[in-house]
Specification:
mainly beta; Immunoglobulin-like; four-stranded antiparallel β-sheet; about 5% helix; globular
Length: about 110
């Protein structure tokens, strides 16, 4: 089985997956404090499929932090957003939560995928 949280990062400026980008998954509490659950690096296809084991999520708020600044800098590309934080709430812990990131040096977008 796959992780209940997955991600896919695409470099829209180059039209290819963002391989080698570090991503951190945190659990957020009501006071804004966080607990890091996992740190991963995107594979050659820009994907992360193993953040946490199946059945390990609660109906809580989480954050994915994409370390975009270090990734762009390593390629000698401009850095405007040093990181991208995507905060989301899991309502049903039994559902799959896929969070893609469409990325360029000067912009990004995200959505809930399947």
């Amino acid at each position: 089985m796959t992780s209940p949280i997955t991600s896919h990062v695409l470099d829209t400026a180059l039209g290819r997956p963002a391989a080698g980008l570090r991503v951190r998954l945190d659990l957020l509490d009501h006071d804004g404090h966080h607990k890091t659950l996992a740190e991963r690096v995107t594979n050659d296809q820009g994907r992360i499929a193993d953040f946490v084991p199946p059945g390990s999520l609660g109906a809580q708020t989480y954050r994915l932090t994409f370390e975009t600044g270090a990734w762009f800098a390593a390629a000698g590309r401009p850095v405007f957003y040093p990181h991208v934080d995507v905060v989301f709430t899991v309502q049903d812990a039994d559902e799959h939560h896929h969070i893609p990131l469409l990325l360029s040096p000067f912009g990004y977008s995200t959505y809930r995928g399947t």
